Amino acid sequence: MLITLYATSARRRWLLAVILLLTLAVVLFVADGDRGSIYGSRNALIEAQKRDGYVQVGSFGRPDWPAIVVSRETGQGGVSFTTADGQPHRYQGFAGPMKALEFRAGLGGGKRFTLVFHRVPKKDGGGY
After folding, report:
1. Whether residues 43 and 102 fall in one domain
2. 48 plus 90 within the same structural domain
3. What mean pLDDT, rounded, does the chain reach?
């Protein structure tokens, strides 16, 4: 009602477009799994990854917390990614799924760092 009373029709259309775009961005952002996740500490991240069967196998840059996941690269038996300083890397020689998570410290405004994870097989031999 406040929008109707205050805004002109052009403003209403603009406001509606912004709301729709933000909604779409949130849906796409959340649908990526890790991307958009916020971690307050390394321990919180490690516990979350452990629940999904992943262990950390690499680190690029100096982690700083809290941090938000800004991108994710995945692969089977290896993973290729580019670090914050532009250096391409490839982790390989691991059986099963891998992922490289790029973080931005300070909930989006800080420096970037990358952590690499490998999914370990289930103990019962039933796969990943």
Report:
1. yes
2. yes
3. 83
